[in-house]
Amino acid sequence: MKFISIAKKDFRELTRDRRGLAMILLFPMFFMLVFGFAFGGMGQSNEPHNLAVVNQDKGATMPLTGEQVNFGNNLTKILEDSQYQDSEVHLFNVTTTTESEADEKIKQRDVDAELIIPENFSQSVVALITANLQQQSLTSASASTNVTSTLVIRGDTGYTGFGTTQGILTGVLEQYQDKMVSEIQKAITGSSGVTADTYLQTRVESIPGTGSFTNFDFMAPGMIVFAILLLTTTVAAGLTREVEKGTLSRLKLSKMTSFDLLLGGLIPWSLVAAAQVVILLIVAVLIGFHWQGGIYTLLLAVLVGIIGGIASVSLGMIIAAFARNDRQAANLGTLISVPTSFLVGAFFSLPNVVIANFWGQPFQLYDLLPWTHVLSALRSTLTYGLGWEAIAYQVGWAVLLTVILFAIGVGLFAKNRLQAEK
User: Fold this and answer.
1) Where in 260-343 does DSSP place strands (E)?
2) For the segment 233-282, what is each residue's pLDDT rounded down to a tens digit?
3) What is the mean pLDDT of residues 346-352?
4) Where are the bilayer-spanning segments (predicted)?
5) Angle, to 10 degrees, between the axis of helix 231-245 and the axis of helix 326-343?
6) Helix, strand, coil: what percent of the chain each, to 5?
C-alpha cells in the first residue's frame, strides 16, 4: 500500500503549510461572502432600491376649502412607505436632497435613480380637482386653468440598476395617479370624470454626460484600481526577497533610517502606478470606454493613481513584515488585495453601510479603505469629466488614509525586519 504512505506524506506537508492551506480554504469563502453580500441580499428575497427625491413643489390652495397643501410631500411619503407585496421590505431607500447633489449621487452610484417633483406639482393636482368639479357642475372644463406638471425620473441610463428602479418607480407613480383620480372622482361625482394624463406626466432622462454610457464606462476605473492594488503582491514579495538576501540590512549600515529606505522605494512604484493609469486608460478607450474631460482629467487621474499606488505599497510593507518568504508574501498579497478590490467597489456597487457623516457627506464602512476614495475620484474624472472641485473631498480622504497606512507599514516593517543595526 505505497500510495497510502505517499498520501500520508502529502497530507502532513499540506497541514504543515498552515498559511497556504488557509489561503486555499478561505480565499473562495471570502469571494462567496462578498458576492452574496452584494447580490444575494444576505438572505433577503427583496431589496430596497436607492432613490433620491428632489421635491421642488411649492404647494397650492385647495378649491372650496382654501387649505394649503403640498402634494410633493405627500408623494415623497408614499414612496418612503411603499413596500413589496406580502413583505415588510420597502421598495425604496428614499433620500431627500437637491438636484445637484442627486446628480452627484447618481454618478457615484450612491443612488440608482432620482425623482424630480416640479414646482407646480400641487397646482396641477388642484387643477385636476377643479376640472372634475367643473365637469360635475356642467361647467366647461376648458374654463379652468390647465396646469401640466412633469415628474422627471433621472439617472444613468446605461446602468442596469437604473433600469430596474425606473421600472418600479414608474409603476408606483401610475398607481399613485390612478388612486388620486379615483378618490377625486368618488368624492365629487361617484362616477368617471377628467383623467390625470392632461395634468400629470412623467419623463425619463439621463443625467448630463451619461446618455451614451455603458456598464464598461463605470467598470473601467475599477479595473485601474484593481491593477494598482495588485502592486501589493509584487511589493510584498520584493521586500521579503530583499530581506532574505540581506540587501536591506546592508543598506541600513549606511546610517539610512527605515523611513528613508522605504520612502525612497515609493518613487519607482509611484511611477509604475502612474504608468498603469495611462496604459489602462488607452486600452480602455480602444475597446469602447467613453473618456471624458481630456488631458486635464488624465493628469488628475494620474495624481489619484499615484496616491493609490502609495497605499498599495504601504499595504505591501505590512504584509512583508510578517511573511516568512517571498512565496508566502505573494500568496498573502493576493489573498488580501484581490478581495479588497471587490470591497472598494471596483467591479460592482456594494450596499450602503453608512457609519457616520463628515462635512455633509455619508461615510461608509468601505470608506475606511483609501482605494475606495481613489476609485470614486477616478470615476469622477475619467467617466464623468469632472475637475478638482468634484474630487477634492475624496482625494483628501485618500491622502489621509494613505499616510496612516504608510506610517503603519514603515513601523511594522522596521520593527520586524530591520532591527539588525541594534
Assistant:
1) none
2) 988 888 888 777 766 666 656 666 666 666 666 778 888 888 889 998 99
3) 74
4) 21-42, 218-240, 261-289, 295-323, 335-359, 391-414
5) 160
6) 65, 10, 25
Fold classification of 44-206 is: abc type-2 transporter like fold (3.40.1710)
CA–CA separation, 175 and 153 (whole Å):
16
| Strand, helix or coil for residue 98 | coil
Q: Where are the domains of the chain?
A: 44-206, 214-417
Query: How far is residue 225's CA from residue 312's CA, in Å, rounded to a whole number?
Result: 10
Per-residue pLDDT tens over the stretch 357-404:
777 677 888 889 999 999 999 988 998 888 898 899 999 999 999 999
pLDDT tier, 216 (very low <50, low <70, confident <90, very high otherwise): confident
Q: Which among 154, 89, 110, 181 is positioned nearest to 81, based on CA atoms? A: 89
122/102 Cα distance (integer angstroms): 22
Taking the mean position of all CA atoms in its chain, how far away is CA 160?
A: 14
- Label the pairing between strands 149-155 and 113-117: antiparallel
What distance in Å separates the CA atoms of residue 312 and residue 271, rounded to the nearest whole number?
13
The residues that bridge with 153 in the sheet, in sequence order, are 115, 204
What pLDDT sits at residue 140?
46
- What whole-number distance in Å separates Cα of residue 193 and Cα of residue 79? 26
Note the pLDDT of residue 142: 44
Please report the pLDDT score of residue 211 as a whole number.
54
Burial of 96 (C-beta count, 10 Å sphere; 0-12/13-18/19+): middle
Nearest to 259 by CA among 404, 419, 409, 410: 410
Give the type of residue at 291.
Answer: W
Mean pLDDT of 36-62: 74
Identify the residue whose cell numbers are 395617479: 177
